[in-house]
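Side project, low priority. Logging it here so it doesn't get lost.
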Amino acid sequence: MVRKFLTGLLVAILCPVIVSAETACREDTIQLRGDWGEARFRVEVVDTEQERAQGLMNRESLSTGAGMLFVFQKTEPVSFWMENTLIPLDLIFITENGQAARIHHNAQPMDRTPMPSELPVRYVLEINGGMARAMGISEGSELRHPSFLQNDAIWSCEGGA
């Protein structure tokens, strides 16, 4: 009971703002929803090869409610590593329709071990390590962002809910 309370308290303190159904899609925000609830993160969008290659390398911190959204031009399997990345991260691999296909929890700083998506994906969201598990974000969670292909999106920016 105490552990459950402390976990809930930790999530409330550390987690991003809960999203209302009316929250509009914005370029600087990604929204997530699932059986666990709804949340949003402020994101930097990286959509060029050079930006994706740099990612979060050499940064000493990442704000609790922040993340980086990698947008690829085509849907295919991708692989990441943590070379020159100084902070632990959770990587959420996202299909082109906006569904979390795989989550790699707590990727370790400076580790060159590849972390593959295993499935074709179009987007990857990086957030602070441990955040996905603390919030209950899981495979199958739905995400939305204006960069997503809206015609195929499970949770479209154009259609609201």
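Brief comment: The beta strands are 29-34, 37-46, 66-76, 79-80, 89-94, 100-107, 115-116, 121-128, 142-144.
Revisit when time allows.
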